[in-house]
């Protein structure tokens, strides 16, 4: 009896050790899959991965990746992670791809996808996704991943949008127009608030969040050939109108001057947590962050609505998101990358991070998207507009950031600042 | 074991090798030459080459042209960028030099008197130096925050003083970046000055005291002249370091508002990684190199000559 017990204990210990050892072998810090797996795929990812700073999300991704690799036991994923300096990371990756040193596949930000397309560094993905899957994508997503030859060059798996958050106890009704927002913000300052907050510092968020106002007026940044047109003709008028709207918010005190220093959505969360603001323009993902940050009673005061337009029926909102693309032209690797996009990212990862899917059907598939908030976000995608997929966009954005700082701080008059930004963008366009 | 014994024990082949190259330095320094050539010289040469092309990050074709040089140097933004750089570099060098010397003098005097806290002071200053630039930028962003809960403005409010638009006012923001960089670089100057102060012959101070020199006279007529070489070398080093600084600024202000705090290193970064203009960035990198070398030569010309030493 004693020996049987010892044997059973030894056997169970061995089995436990073996299973632990197997689990450890399947998922290390930079590898998913067995170390001696015959096939290998080098994958470079953002924090939408086991590298996420939130331990629960990191663990969730690790589980998704391990489940995925169990279905493909001949493979191992060699993981590389990007820093948060996305612009630089993407530019470096483009250089690597051109030199033939890029990873097999990687996360590519949707707004720089065109740079990769024009350099012909992305593998053709068309045959790896069914027509139904492609047709199910929102139209702006579909056009974003398709090149001029109508070939699918990447899989855009998540999207987002910007909304106006408000504290209902201070601003009861959702502002519908620019004037409404100004009045509500000014009224909130009388209750000790800062007014409306938005990104106005030197970073991409400043351009992207403000563009919703320009797009609501029907303005265009570039023409069909990708040449900047925002500083001429009707576009110039619309641009100035949208720019003056933000300037007026600051000049009137409806927004604090410090908006020109805000270059991070976390600043808005901090202001909400400190109860110093009742209104801010932020991303849909901040709703979950507010829920995690604020007490339940405080959180219940917060809601969101579409970004106000010049009139109630002129609305727009910026939509972005991440794609998975393949730099390797090896057929097996392209297929494996397509599997990764389909089995890990297209659906499961959306649900894990509550990041809006790019396919309509997935909103019904996952319960997490059946909440009122996520339904509203999904409905608002109707007004969504993506950044133009042209190589000059990053420089246009850079110039708009400079312009915004000059205008909001009072250094330059709006028209002078616009002219300077437009001329600089045209000069840069000529050099591309 | 004597050298003769080593030779006797060595195998004949090795001995032949040693004898053949004993008087030739090239084989011994070749590894260093190769490493410097690959990792230092080649990138510099390539930057010079790229500045004579129209290369971009997203294009495959590149032609040799002088257009990139004329474009980059005639850019209407360049004078503002150079002015912001001058304020940032000049202010940082002066501030770091003076504060570094002051802290070093305080530490030395404290040590002489056996005061408690000199090690703590030295360590505290060094902490700022070891903090990465990006982290330093985040720390100062929190301090300069103009939100109602911003650190420095909250202190001013407690003292019933008006708050300051540290980062949103284009006239004040450059000084804010300057303060953060002086904070970060003072420790390096302190270390250099501390070592130089330690090496001054104490008999010079004894002689000055015998002659009845006051403390300030001793400082200006003994200490400073003795520190001349160290000050100039330190200035060369911190000038080069500051001209290349952009990590702290990109976190603190991103170069804004507008272009108020966009120094040349950040401008180059933006041109290459936002505008994808590799040749324009290369031209400006060469300009940065010329500025750094020019300033270094100017400082070096004031270094005491061998006969003066």
Question: Could you characterize what this model shows?
Answer:
The complex is a heterodimer of chains A (432) and B (309). Chain A is α/β, with parallel strands linked by helices and 432 residues long. Helices cover 49% and strands 13% of the residues of chain A. Chain A folds into 2 domains: 17-156 and 321-383, 3-Layer(aba) Sandwich (D-Maltodextrin-Binding Protein, domain 2); 162-319 and 391-430, 3-Layer(aba) Sandwich (D-Maltodextrin-Binding Protein, domain 2), CATH 3.40.190. Chain A is built from 17 helices and 14 strands. In chain A, strand 2, helix 2 and strand 3 (75-81) form a beta-alpha-beta unit. In chain A, helix 2 (55-71) runs antiparallel to helix 13, helix 8 packs across helix 9 and helix 16 (393-408) packs antiparallel against helix 17. Chain B is 72% helix and 0% strand. Chain B contains 14 helices and no strands. In chain B, helix 9 (173-198) crosses helix 11 (215-243) and helix 13 (264-273) runs antiparallel to helix 14 (278-301). Chain B starts with a helix and ends in an 8-residue tail after the last helix. Classes of the chains: A alpha/beta (432), B mainly alpha (309). The A-B interface holds A 87-88, 91, 94-95, 98, 115, 118-119, 194, 201-203, 256-261, 263, 267, 270-271, 274, 276, 391, 394-395, 397-398, 401-403, 405-406, 408-409, 411-412, 420, 424, 427-428, 431-432 and B 54, 56-60, 71, 76-77, 145-149, 165, 167-170, 253-260, 269-270, 272-277, 280.
